[in-house]
Write a structure and sequence with these properties.
The chain has 205 residues and is of the alpha/beta class. Strands 5-4-1-6-7 form a 5-stranded parallel sheet, with helices on both faces. Helix 11 links the parallel strand 6 and strand 7. The protein is elongated and about 55 Å long. The two termini are 13 Å apart.
Amino acid sequence: MSTGYLVVDLGGVVCHFDHARRLDRLAQACPLDTEQIHALLWLSGFSADCDQGRYGSAAVVRTRIRAILGFAGSDDDIDDAWCSAFLPSPAVIDVLDTHRGDRLLALFTNNGPLEEQALSRRYPDVFARFDRLFFSYRLRRRKPDPAAFTAVAGHLGASSEEIVFTDDSATNVAAAREIGWHSFPFHEVAQLRRDLDEAAERLGR
């Protein structure tokens, strides 16, 4: 039986996140430059719409990307470009493996169906470590919306004081604290190790 819940972010915590690299990869496969791509897919709200479940499958997201960018490559080309922003951090994964204790480990990320399908296929060993995966498009809510945190707690069957949470976004950490989660910002691996030890001591686990 679990004696607590450890919930962590994906991009910026479990994975290094490099948005500029993704823009460069997309620009190599379509007739637009990186600024145009960023405007069309991110500033326009398209990416946020994906995160909130407007496009319910990876196939639909790929179709929209092709239409918006004039992307002529294969599905694998889109997946490779779109997910090139994410690179797993072995050091973070090692800390989670060794410091989670007997907590249930969950991933909670603002991402859509394309990321879920492509990243879990690309990095199966990383995603297999998690007992639960919470992608915002399935919740139809994104961090820092308090309803997103409440939904995750509900799916876990956990009370707020049972949950330890880390995210690279100070805004998300603050939102989690507002509803009673034990939350701390992720900055670097050594601090993550100390924060998890401190949380375990505070919660008596």
